[in-house]
């Protein structure tokens, strides 16, 4: 994102120190007010820098996810419906070797490997929205609770994968044992 489009300028450390020096010279300013003001300035600088970096990253990559958060709910023996993993190629060249990567479970001790990713297509043409896979979960044998994971989608032509989150909420434990070849629920893919 061009610097002129930032809603607020980023406050460099030199400017923050200068503001702190000038504020301490004011006789009516209490130390608590100074700390609060500096904390607000630092927070504003951090938010602005993060938003700017995310804006640049989103604009710099042609790979975009249709959905960045996937939520699944399971109760008893019923498996949640599967969900399509769709990506959009906003670039002018074909994306190849598009696939799921960087799968990390937030709490592996409670039940790792509950996410099942089924690849479908590995190339996406320019200006195409394509389903490159299907995500589903195997909640069999998991205790009631909330399970979280993060993953990313990468393409050979994109230097940095695009991350997304997956949440599984289990409200009732399954009566059957965990099966390595468990079937995922079926979703209507549109």
Q: What would your notes on this structure say?
A:
The structure is a single chain. The chain has 190 residues and is α+β, with helices and mostly antiparallel strands. Helices cover 24% and strands 31% of the residues. The protein has three helices and eight strands. The chain has helices at residues 13-24, 31-60, 108-111, and strands spanning 63-65, 69-75, 83-89, 99-105, 115-119, 129-137, 145-154, 162-172. The strands form two sheets. It has a four-stranded antiparallel beta sheet, with no helix packed on it. Strands 2-8-7-4 form a four-stranded mixed beta sheet. A hairpin with a 7-residue loop joins strand 7 (145-154) and strand 8. Helix 1 packs antiparallel against helix 2 (31-60). The protein is flat and about 50 Å long. The two termini are 33 Å apart. The model is unreliable at 1-16 and 42-58 (pLDDT under 50).
How many E strands? 8
Output mean pLDDT.
74
Q: Shape, please?
A: flat
Instruction: Report the portion of residues in β strands.
Output: 25-35%
H/I helix tally = 3
| Poorly predicted runs of 5 or more residues | 1-16, 42-58
Q: What is the chain-wise order of helices and strands?
A: HHEEEEHEEEE
Radius of gyration: 23 Å
Keywords:
about 190 residues; alpha+beta; 4-stranded antiparallel β-sheet; 4-stranded mixed β-sheet; about 30% strand; disordered N terminus
């Amino acid at each position: 994102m061009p610097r002129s489009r930032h809603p607020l300028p980023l406050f460099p450390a030199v400017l923050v120190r200068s503001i702190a020096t000038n504020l301490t010279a004011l006789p009516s300013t209490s130390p608590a007010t100074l700390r609060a003001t500096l904390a607000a300035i630092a927070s504003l600088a951090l938010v602005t820098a993060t938003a700017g970096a995310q804006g640049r990253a989103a604009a710099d990559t042609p790979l975009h996810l249709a959905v960045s958060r996937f939520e699944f709910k399971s109760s008893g023996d019923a498996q949640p419906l599967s969900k399509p993993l769709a990506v959009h190629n906003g670039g002018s060249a074909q994306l190849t070797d598009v696939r799921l990567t960087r799968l990390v479970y937030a709490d592996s001790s409670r039940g790792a490997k509950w996410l099942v990713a089924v690849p479908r297509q590995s190339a996406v043409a320019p200006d195409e929205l394509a389903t490159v896979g299907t995500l589903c979960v195997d909640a069999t044998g998991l205790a009631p609770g909330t399970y979280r994971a993060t993953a990313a989608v990468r393409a050979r032509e994109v230097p940095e994968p695009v991350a997304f989150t997956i949440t599984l909420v289990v409200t009732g434990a399954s009566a059957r044992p965990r099966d390595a070849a468990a079937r995922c629920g079926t979703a209507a893919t549109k």
